[in-house]
Structure formats: structure tokens, C-alpha cells
Design a protein that fits this description.
Family: Belongs to the aconitase/IPM isomerase family.
Number of strands: 38
Distance between the termini: 24 Å
Cofactor: [4Fe-4S] cluster
Catalytic activity: citrate = D-threo-isocitrate
Strand content: 15-25%
Strand order of the largest sheet: 28-33-34-35-38-37-36
Protein name: Aconitate hydratase
CATH class of the largest domain: Alpha Beta
Largest sheet: 7 strands, mixed, barrel
CATH architecture of the largest domain: 2-Layer Sandwich
Shape: globular
Radius of gyration: 27 Å
EC number: 4.2.1.3
Number of domains: 5
């Protein structure tokens, strides 16, 4: 069979002594199609996909020509149909995706069709990394205990994943205890270049159901996070559609100074890119500074792309990529083919100044980067390390509306004493109690608590005493209670991990001791980290400071921090302390790390160790001592490792044979996974009694005809929210409160509190996830004056109740619902249930000042209409309070992408106001999705019609 040859671009190249085929971008340029050699490298890689998949149906010749003629300053109206090479999933998002696929098979079976017509058409890899929690910490057996608890809690979910492995031909699972999806992708799954059955080679590209999929951009691979619903469509043969992007070039020069880490650089880039306003854009790094960065540093920066709002944070391909592939054990023939392919495509090397046409160029001298942290509530809020003390004390009394904590300045130095209850803590502050007991205590009232206001002003570090079977520990506002070396952002980078180990070694040698109230943990992104920390002899020092390995997975960064000890959590809650966490992660949104820890700071792994020892964040570690050692005060400069000391250890970090050994035959390395049974068959037998896996309602009463687009009238407000409402606010991933709608549901279904698990682990059950939507303990509904918690006012009666309960009443009455929000609505993880739950609550419209890219797309993908206020118009300027009714005027089958509509607001007194809004259905295909009630019904109808 002859291969398609669009624009006569099917060419050959030679690699490893053999001749191979490719669709040539230089040949496309020679054919007079675009000035391709001036295009950003990231755009050219997407263009290759269009060229190779140009079949006149999914991808037209016109689409190829439009992207080949990408203009740096052009208007962005064209839609790109991007066909990806593969898809990666993590288990929190992957389980509900598999549930949807199972439901689609049930739906087509009911239509009398073969269920096997629902089958991923590209390779899909799911890495189980989000289910491990830090229930045990600070002990040598913490890893084993956490793993056992993980398998006990998640047995039903893992059985379901095993069903998926046997039911779908292209669906593979990396079992628990191996690593974090993005680090596993970087170190193992990514090949850099792939080939099809016809021997045609093409770039490795992907989308993933986690926003930090962008980590792979560090090795020159195009990929980003999408919602699970978009990923499902991609799996089933649909292109990933997106508007042609602007590409912001970041020109890097210079090199990092002594004492500065890749984490400091990543936080600096995050702040700079947020100021540059790169939301929805590609960011491409170039210049001599970019070329000189080690690949692991590039990956750390790329990983943070969601935090700076970009679709990608892309580094082009060069010899550093080849070196990394070799060092991590990839096959030599593959490495040679990889290099030859990109040279043949004219895509080899980091561009220099003037070689590429970018929409905008921003410059950064790496020598200007200084030690930094970010927080206390957002990753883009960078703080120079020397300013942290002042920033924390300032934010303490700042209004909540200004990202502060809204406390009185005098409260910072109040004196509180806790009574005599004693609980033994392990080294590093981890609880030795069973997790269930620790959690239960956190819910109880401590009868010994006594509040004493001092007559004079004591110093902050004597704020509160807790007896811990040791000399009483002090804690108060600013106390560090969680210190976690966590997240692939940094654990994939040997330089910062070795720096943490070296700092721990020096701290121990100088006699510094772990702080008894700090729950410390080390959760590497892969077992390779443990290997090189062992080989360099640094593990024992981390252990002595409480940083024992607790698991291989995405732990504290996503809220799986586990419980604090009972007395400590009780003291925090009862005295409303603004306690802190320090973590080497990428996310620090409110209530994400732990529901009762309000100040959360991102930082490099060595700084995590330093602040764990200091025990508080209201300290200037550049001038004040960390603590007292055997010979007096110890300062950060006394124990900070030099660049040379880190380099001396680096040769132990990237050993090809280690990667080959640890990334082969997962089953034999994980006996607990082998013990999990699996059901068989092509159609899943849903169990109506399960509290983990349920058949979702998305295909109930499914028919082959789509609906029609009509105006929405008589909508009531379910919630009115301010700026920076994240997907964590909309659909929390962490602990389930007993008194919440989801908690009440679990109790009613016979689940004891200690077996609640997390929202993230129960994403396969729509009954729980719908009840958890808008249930974050820190979300502030302005209908209640900004009161925290997932409540609302039910109109027209004016009753206060849980958002879920109000939505249920509105659904019963047939009343459509609207959610109103401010800037950056839906920032955060690519959480499909933030859109699915919104849909299931009966919300038909979300109006915001601006949307995060993935969440806007997900809303459309679930048949929810996103509308955007015009500049300067807000819920506050309109004086909305939730007593109004709302109509969307102008919504009809002839709607065009991004056209203006009218939001008709009818006040309680009958006055009517007409407000112009922009429809954020952005592309033609999204109009089709919306008409069909979402992307999944659309794709299912397409598949059924073809079969």
C-alpha cells in the first residue's frame, strides 16, 4: 500500500546504518509552503503532526498551510487539529476516564453494537502515583506501612484498573510504588521519536490528564495537560483542538550563581511569566543560557508551566537531550535514530538570538536569580528568601481579599497553653498512632484547652506549648508543621535532591536536631532517587532528621499529606493558628496541602530541610540561626552545599544500568500488585453497592441525535465567587469532611470515617464527586458575604445550606443554575471533575472575568456554557447578591465562536439590566461539542455512526 504524500513531503533519512521514512518539514518549505525555518520549534513539531495526518478529514491541507504560515503577530482565529502520538494518565484522573470508557462500552452494548468499537487508538500509559498518603512518617518502616495502607484502601480501584488492562488492547498500567507519572514519563516512557507500522518516524508527542505533563517539554517533547474528557476523545481518535497560539520566546543568558538552585530559577520564571501574561500561549526557551542548562533543570522549569499559565514551557532539542536519553538507559539504536531524525527535520539545536520569529521576547539573565520561596497561597507569588519573615508577618494581618490572613497584628504574639495530654511522636513529627486514631482525635474537642491572654507581649516563639512525651514543644503562628520533599518538579532533579542530602549531612554533623512538631517526609518521584542517595551515603542523614522515605508517588503536593498528630491539629484548629507547610512542590493553593494549614510555601529540597530544622517561617535564614548545634548557633551559610560539592556527587545519579533495572518487569518487583484480582470481559459489571466505582450518568438515555442550542432562561445563582478560584476549590482532592454532603453520603452507605479516603481516590463514583463539588473548606461564596465553606443561599426562600443540597432542590424544580466568578477561574490541576461536578449540579452557565485554559475547555466538554464579562465588569460592579434571575439572550444554533451574547439580569425588585458578555466557546468544533451536550456524547455518536 502506497503511503499518502501530502505536498510531496514523504522523504527518507539514514540512522544507525538503516534508511527510514519521515514527513519532511524542510521539503514542505521547499514546496513554497511557509517560511518554516523561522517558525518556533514547538510550532514546527505540531506542524509535523498535521502534515503526517493530513487526510482531508481529520486534518485538511488548508490546516497544514495555515499553520505553516504562522505569523508571530497574527490574529489567532484558526483551530489546530493536533493528533498526538500517545497519552499518559495518573490514577486520580485515569480511573474516572476508564469509568467513562466502561460506561461508553455499556452504552454501545445497549444499542446492540460490539463493545470493542470503544478502544484507544493510541498507546495509553497510566501510572498509579496519586493514591499513596503520608499516614506514617519519621520511621524506618513508614514506606512499607503507607504502601500496605494504600493497597488496603484502594483495592477496589486497582481491581478496576486491572480489568481495564485486560479489556483494552493499548492500555498499560505502571503499578503503585514505582514513581510519579511525569518523572516516570521523563525517565522511562518517553522515547523522543516513534515509528508506525509502515516504518515512518515521527516526533514523540502527547497529552496527559495532569497539568504537569509539561515536564516532558524539558526534553523537547511537545505535550501538555488536558482534562480527562479531552484525553478520552484523543484516545478515541479525535484530534486535540486548540486555537493557534502566540509563542513567547524567553531568551536566557548567563548562569546561576553559587547558592542558587534550579528551584529558585523555576520560581523566578513562574513569577516573570505570570507578569508577562502567557496564559494559553506557548513559551519557548532559547539562547546561550538555555543551551547551558542541564536537562533536569529544564524539566524543573517546564514542569511549572501550569503555574505560570502557559500551555507549554518548551526547550528545543539538542545534544543535552541525547546525553540524557543515554544516561537514563534508553536503547543506543533509538538514541542514534532520535538524533538523526531531528537533524533531518532541521530541528536540532537550541536557537540563538534572531534565528526565530517569536510573538514576544522576554529576557532573563540567570545570574540575576536569587534564593527564593513562593507563597503563602499561590505558586507565582515569589518571595526572596531574605524577605520571607517580613512577608509572612505582613500577610498575617493583610485582608483576605489581598491574599492575606485577615488577623489582628496583636494576635500574632498572643500566648496560649495546651493541657497535659501526651502523645508520643516519632522522629520528625510523624504520628505513631494508627491514622484512624489520629484523624479521629483531630475531630474531637480537647477538654484541657485553656486560653490565656498575657498581660505583656511575649515573643512569638513561646506562643503555645504542647506536651509530646518530650520537653514541651512550642508552636504558634508561623510554625512549620509539615516539611515535605515531594513532587516530580524537584525530585526528578538530582542536583537539588543531592543538595538536600548534603545539607542534612552537614546539619547532623553540627549537632542540629529534628523539630518534634514537624511532620517531615521524603517522597521521591522514582526509585532512582533512593538509589543515588544510598550510593552517595546521604540517606542516613536525611533519616536522622525525619526525612525517611514515605512512598514513591505524588503525596503532599496534592493534599495526601496525611494527618497531623491529634494534640497538634487540635491546637491549630481551636486556636485558629496560621501554621505553615514547606514543600518542594508546585502547588500551594488554599486547603490543598492540609485543610488546617493556612500558609504553604514552595521551595527547593535543601530549603525544606532547613526550614524543618528551624521550625518556623517567621525567620530570616540569611541572617538568623537555624538553631543551636553542639558548638553554638548554626546558620544556613554554615551548612549550605557548594555547587562543586553537588557536582562531585552527580556521577552517582544517572547510571544507565540502574534505570534499566528499575524500569523493567514491574510485576515481579511489586508482589502486592500481583495479589490484586481482576475481573474479565469486554464490558465492566458495575456493582451498585460500590462506593468507589459507579456507572456515571453521562450516557443515561443516550440517543443518536444531538440536541439543539437554545437560550437559557430563569437561571438562579448557585455561587458568586471572587478571583483565583482554583480547581481545588471547585473539586477538592484531599480529605472528606464528616459533616459534608459527601461525608454524610459515605456514612449513610456504611463507610466508617477512618475509611473515607480522599476525594481524589473516589473520582470513579459520581455520587461522591458531585457532592464534593464546591465543597472545599476554604472556598468563599460572596452570596454569604465571603464566608468560608461550601455553602450557599437557596433562592427564593433565602435558606442557607450546602451547595449540593441547594443544587438538588433546584434540579428537582427544573431550575437552571449559574455560577459567577472573577479572574483566573479554574486555575490549578487539569481536574475533569471540576467540570463534571459543575454539570451534575445542574449548572448551565459559568460567567467569569477570565478562565484558565483547561477548565474553560472542560466546561464546554461537559456541555456547560462559559461566558466572559467585558473588561471592567464584575459581580461587584453589577452589585450581584444571588437574589437575581438570569437569562442568556442570543444563544441559538447559528452561534459563532467567541461571539457576543447578552446576560439579562432581573433584580429582586423587577428591574432588568442587559450585560454584554463574550461566549467562550472558542472554536468551531467546540460548538459541535456543546450542541451534543459535551465531547463524550459527540465522540460516541461519531463512533456508532461509523460502525
Amino acid at each position: 500500500m502506497s503511503l499518502p504524500n501530502p505536498f510531496n513531503t514523504l522523504q527518507t533519512f539514514t540512522a544507525a546504518g538503516a534508511t527510514h521514512s519521515l514527513y519532511s518539514l524542510p521539503a514542505l518549505e521547499k514546496a513554497g509552503i511557509g517560511n518554516i525555518s523561522r517558525l518556533p520549534v514547538s510550532i514546527r513539531l505540531v506542524l509535523e503532526s498535521l502534515l503526517r495526518n493530513c487526510d482531508g478529514k481529520r486534518v485538511s491541507e488548508q490546516a497544514v498551510k495555515e499553520l505553516a504560515n504562522w505569523s508571530a503577530k497574527g490574529e489567532r482565529t484558526e483551530e489546530i487539529p493536533f493528533v498526538v502520538a500517545r497519552i499518559v494518565l495518573q490514577d486520580f484522573t485515569g480511573v474516572p476516564l476508564l469509568v467513562d470508557l466502561a460506561a461508553m462500552r455499556s452504552a454501545v452494548t445497549k444499542l446492540g453494537k460490539n463493545p470493542k468499537i470503544i478502544e484507544p487508538l493510541v498507546p495509553v500509559d497510566l501510572v498509579v502515583d496519586h493514591s499513596v498518603q503520608v499516614d506514617f512518617a519519621g520511621t524506618s518502616d513508614a514506606f512499607q506501612k503507607n504502601l500496605e495502607l494504600e493497597f488496603s484502601r484502594n483495592r477496589e480501584r486497582y481491581q478496576f484498573l486491572k480489568w481495564g488492562m485486560q479489556a483494552f488492547d493499548t492500555f498499560k498500567v505502571v503499578p503503585p510504588g514505582i514513581g510519579i507519572v511525569h518523572q516516570v514519563n521523563l525517565e522511562y516512557l518517553a522515547k523522543g521519536v516513534l515509528s508506525d507500522a509502515n516504518g515512518v518516524y515521527y516526533p514523540d508527542t502527547l497529552v496527559g490528564t495532569d497539568s504537569h505533563t509539561t515536564m516532558i517539554n524539558g526534553i523537547g517533547i511537545v505535550g501538555w495537560g488536558v482534562g480527562g474528557i479531552e484525553a478520552e476523545a484523543g484516545m478515541l481518535g479525535q484530534p486535540v483542538y486548540f486555537l493557534t497560539p502566540d509563542v513567547v520566546g524567553v531568551y536566557l543568558t548567563g548562569s546561576l550563581k553559587e547558592g542558587v538552585t534550579a528551584t529558585d530559577l523555576a520560581l523566578t520564571v513562574t513569577q516573570l511569566m505570570r507578569k508577562t501574561k502567557v496564559v494559553g500561549k506557548f513559551v519557548e526557551f532559547f539562547g546561550p543560557g538555555a543551551a547551558a542548562l542541564p536537562l533536569v533543570d529544564r524539566a524543573t522549569i517546564a514542569n511549572m508551566a501550569p503555574e505560570y499559565g502557559a500551555t507549554m514551557g518548551f526547550f528545543p532539542i539538542d545534544a543535552e537531550c541525547t546525553n540524557y536519553l543515554r544516561a537514563t538507559g534508553r536503547d543506543e539504536k533509538l538514541v542514534q535514530t532520535y538524533e538523526a531524525y531531528y537533524k533531518a527535520q532541521g530541528l536540532w539545536g537550541i536557537p540563538q538570538q534572531g534565528q526565530i520569529d517569536y510573538s514576544q521576547v522576554v529576557e532573563l539573565d540567570l545570574a540575576s536569580v536569587v534564593p527564593s520561596v513562593a507563597g503563602p497561597k499561590r505558586p507565582q507569588d515569589r518571595i526572596v528568601l531574605s524577605n520571607l519573615k517580613n512577608e509572612f508577618t505582613t500577610s498575617f494581618s493583610k485582608p483576605v481579599t489581598e491574599n492575606g490572613f485577615g488577623k489582628k497584628a496583636d494576635d500574632f504574639i498572643r500566648r496560649v497553653r495546651i493541657g497535659t495530654e501526651e502523645v508520643a511522636l516519632a522522629s520528625g513529627g510523624g504520628s505513631q498512632e494508627p491514622p484512624s486514631a489520629a484523624k479521629a482525635k483531630a475531630q474531637d474537642t480537647n477538654p484541657h484547652t485553656e486560653l490565656e491572654m498575657a498581660n505583656n507581649r511575649p515573643t512569638p516563639d513561646t506562643v503555645l506549648q504542647v506536651n509530646l512525651n518530650t520537653p514541651p514543644a512550642t508552636l504558634g503562628h508561623g510554625s512549620v508543621l509539615i516539611a515535605a520533599i515531594t513532587s516530580c518538579t524537584n525530585t526528578s532533579n538530582p542536583s537539588v535532591m543531592l543538595a538536600a542530602g548534603l545539607l542534612a549531612k552537614k546539619a547532623v554533623e553540627k549537632g542540629l536536631k529534628p523539630n518534634s512538631v514537624v511532620k517531615a517526609s521524603l517522597a521521591p518521584g522514582s526509585r532512582v532517587v533512593t538509589d543515588y542517595l544510598n550510593k552517595t551515603g546521604l540517606t542516613p542523614y536525611l533519616d536522622q532528621l525525619g526525612f525517611q522515605t514515605v512512598g514513591y508517588g505524588c503525596t503532599t503536593c496534592i493534599g495526601n499529606s496525611g494527618p497531623l498528630s491529634g494534640p497538634i491539629e487540635d491546637a491549630v484548629v481551636k486556636n485558629d493558628l496560621v501554621a505553615a507547610s514547606v514543600l518542594s512542590g508546585n502547588r500551594n493553593f488554599e486547603a490543598r496541602v492540609h485543610q488546617n494549614i493556612k500558609a504553604n510555601f514552595l521551595m527547593s529540597p535543601p530549603l525544606v530541610v532547613a526550614f524543618a530544622l528551624a521550625g518556623r517561617v517567621d525567620v530570616d535564614l540569611t541572617t538568623e540561626p537555624i538553631g543551636n548545634g553542639t558548638k553554638g548557633p548554626v546558620y544556613l551559610k554554615d551548612i549550605w552545599p557548594t555547587i562543586q560539592e553537588v557536582r562531585d556527587q552527580m556521577q552517582a545519579a544517572l547510571k544507565p544500568e540502574v534505570f534499566r533495572s528499575l524500569y523493567t518487569d514491574f510485576a515481579s518487583q511489586n508482589p502486592k500488585w500481583n495479589e490484586i484480582p481482576s475481573s474479565v470481559g469486554n464490558v465492566y459489571a458495575f456493582d451498585s453497592k460500590s462506593t468507589y466505582i459507579q456507572e456515571p450518568p453521562f450516557f443515561a438515555n443516550f440517543g443518536l441525535q444531538p440536541g439543539t442550542i437554545t437560550e437559557i432562561s430563569g437561571a438562579r445563582a448557585l455561587g458568586i465567587f471572587g478571583d483565583s478560584v482554583t480547581t481545588d476549590h471547585i473539586s477538592p482532592a484531599g480529605a472528606i469532611k464528616k459533616s459534608s454532603p459527601a461525608g454524610r453520603f459515605l456514612v449513610d452507605n456504611g463507610v466508617t470515617f477512618e475509611d473515607f479516603n480522599s476525594y481524589g481516590s473516589r473520582r470513579g463514583n459520581d455520587r461522591i464527586m458531585t457532592r464534593g463539588t464546591f465543597a472545599n473548606v476554604r472556598i468563599k461564596n460572596l452570596m454569604l458575604g465571603g464566608e468560608e465553606g461550601g455553602n450557599t443561599i437557596y433562592q427564593p426562600t433565602g435558606e442557607k445550606m450546602a451547595i449540593y443540597d441547594a443544587a438538588a432542590k433546584h434540579i428537582a424544580n427544573g431550575t437552571p443554575l449559574i455560577v459567577i466568578a472573577g479572574q483566573e477561574y479554574g486555575t490549578g490541576s487539569s481536574r475533569d471533575w471540576a467540570a463534571k461536578g459543575t454539570n451534575q449540579l445542574g449548572v448551565k452557565i459559568v460567567v467569569a472575568q477570565s478562565f484558565e485554559r483547561i477548565h474553560r475547555s472542560n466546561l464546554v466538554g461537559m456541555g456547560v456554557l462559559p461566558l466572559q464579562f467585558k473588561e471592567g465588569v464584575t459581580a461587584q460592579t453589577l452589585k450581584l447578591d444571588g437574589t437575581e434571575t438570569y437569562d442568556v439572550v442570543g444563544l441559538n444554533p447559528a452561534i459563532k465562536p467567541q461571539q457576543d451574547l447578552t446576560l439579562k439580569i432581573t433584580r429582586k425588585d423587577g428591574l432588568v439590566e442587559l450585560v454584554p458578555v463574550r461566549c467562550r466557546i472558542d472554536t468551531p468544533i467546540e460548538i459541535d461539542y456543546y450542541q451534543h451536550g459535551g465531547i463524550l456524547p459527540y465522540v460516541l455518536r461519531q463512533i456508532v455512526s461509523k460502525n
